[in-house]
Predict the structure.
Amino acid sequence: MRIGGRRRLLSAAAIGACFSLAGCGLLATEHERYPSPNGTRTLVVKMWADMIDPMYPLQLQEGWWTTSIGCVNGDYAGIRSINWLDENTVQLELSDGGDETIPVLLRITDGRVTPEPDHELLHSC
């Protein structure tokens, strides 16, 4: 009986640590959707909070397939705009928290998403 109690205590501690320290991203809710010009792909912006800071994971959906693109930390960065230039290119305009706008293109080729440039703001979560 004592071993079962330890397991429950360790499980509860692990779950609590996951949610309090990292937010786990499991609680991310869909924030906005940006369908491609012909509708076969969708850029999905999700949102969750790590303590008090908003986080914005970016995903590309194509049919049933979802690809993680990156994440923008709303504590010191932001997403100003998202626009599809064509079926294979998305233009993101990111903010560094100030007045500067940082353009990033997402190129989609053979199911892979390549950011140009591969900016650190896409890896800030």
